[in-house]
Predict the 3D structure of the following.
Amino acid sequence: MKTKCALLLAVVLGPAAWADDATTLTVGLRAWSNTWSTWDVYPPTAVGNAYIPGASENFSSQDKAALIPSVSLRQGDWLLSASRFVKTRYGFDGNEGPFSAKREETDFHAGYYLLPTLALSLGHKSVKQEFSGGTEFKYSGPILGVLGSAPLTRGFSLYGNVGYGRVKGRFPVADASGRAKFDADYWLGEAGLAYSFEGVAAAKAMTLTLGYRSQVLATQGFRIALSPTTNRSTELRDTTEGLALGLSLSF
């Protein structure tokens, strides 16, 4: 559901990013205070000779702080990076009472700087969601990203990144047509403010970031039963969003 484009570690360097052939290693840690909105589906209910159609419904969690450690390696205009959304437990209030779920994500990306403050990336994202009762949902697939920054003054800069991927979802339950594998659209958007300190101890730079991040997993073509003999296709939307605070060091 992050991330995210791990190349953000390079973007937050803003005007302090290195455009020569020197090798730069950046390590970082982000705290993302986010709300997770996920879905559930219900079968049709018989009422006499008729049916109340089945439906989907979304539930939102309480705010939760998730940690995202990251590492990137830049050589000239090329960049490799990885990040991990550490497994985090969320609490929900459902129609049948409270329930909990765990979420974790992994990103790997390679990128190229078209300009000193504009880069394209291609990578792979995986998401795993574990719900009460042992059910496990998985998404994975390629992600395209565009990221950039705009220097302001005295170490400040604006940053932003967007990402899109057509990923595969694998569910522990089948829909009304009997399928348990689906295509899903993954969307990422993040924008915020960065501040860089140069020459901090042994590091080339230390960067603080504060931004708003939103990511969406929209499962396509899930069929919900309206009755024992009819069904309809719907989109199931899973969203995580909130403020993200980050710290990174470049060597």
Observations:
- Confidence is low (pLDDT under 50) at residues 1-19.
- The chain has one helix and 13 strands.
